[in-house]
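Incident log, support desk, overnight shift.

02:14 A customer reports that sequence design results differ from what the structure should imply. Their input is reproduced verbatim below. On-call engineer (initials T.W.) acknowledged and began investigating.
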């Protein structure tokens, strides 16, 4: 049995994250040269928060190895994408790919799509590459860029953990609430795509 205080803390964290302001663009918003800036960045954009939490929710819905494999895949591939961005390796469709990740991962959660773990890793990895590349291109060419990427990775892992923690704290009610959250994520992606949010 999960203590009521743990449930309240988890829900408070989710509400806190949901209250953060959306990012206005990926390049040129705020400083990108410290661990703190990197850590704060995923918490400042609706696209980041929804995708990262959706990965955790989807992993929890799947269960088993997906609980650790899918978040780990996202963080690992995101770091590889970040390295490509820092090296100025061009990659097409980054912004559309990020918007597609919000809608697609939201739908995967909302519909409780049960894919094999390896297929989930491929889907998550593709979207993580877009997210990582976008943020790698923001990093200035100095040593602080590595600190920024480390902070971004830590915050991303934390957001995945929020999604997973929601599964454990909500118990039997989790599936229906997770699916509702997935639908909200997909709706947010559509809103971002059409400039409504």
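02:41 Re-run completed on a clean worker. Output:
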């Amino acid at each position: 049995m999960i203590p009521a205080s743990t449930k309240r803390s988890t829900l408070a964290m989710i509400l806190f994250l949901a209250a953060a302001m959306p990012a206005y663009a990926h390049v040129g918003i705020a400083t990108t040269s410290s661990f703190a800036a990197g850590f704060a960045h995923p918490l400042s954009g609706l696209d980041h928060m929804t995708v990262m939490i959706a990965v955790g929710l989807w992993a929890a819905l799947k269960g088993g190895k997906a609980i650790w494999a899918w978040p780990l895949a996202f963080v690992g591939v995101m770091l590889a994408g970040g390295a490509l961005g820092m090296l100025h390796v061009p990659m097409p469709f980054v912004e559309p790919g990020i918007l597609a990740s919000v809608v697609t991962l939201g739908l995967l959660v909302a519909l409780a799509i049960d894919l094999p773990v390896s297929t989930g890793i491929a889907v998550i990895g593709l979207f993580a590459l877009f997210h990582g590349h976008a943020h790698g291109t923001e990093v200035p060419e100095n040593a602080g860029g590595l600190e920024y990427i480390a902070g971004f990775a830590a915050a991303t892992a934390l957001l995945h953990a929020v999604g997973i923690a929601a599964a454990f704290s909500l118990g039997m009610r989790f599936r229906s609430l997770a699916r509702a959250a997935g639908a909200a994520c997909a709706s947010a992606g559509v809103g971002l795509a059409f400039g409504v949010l």
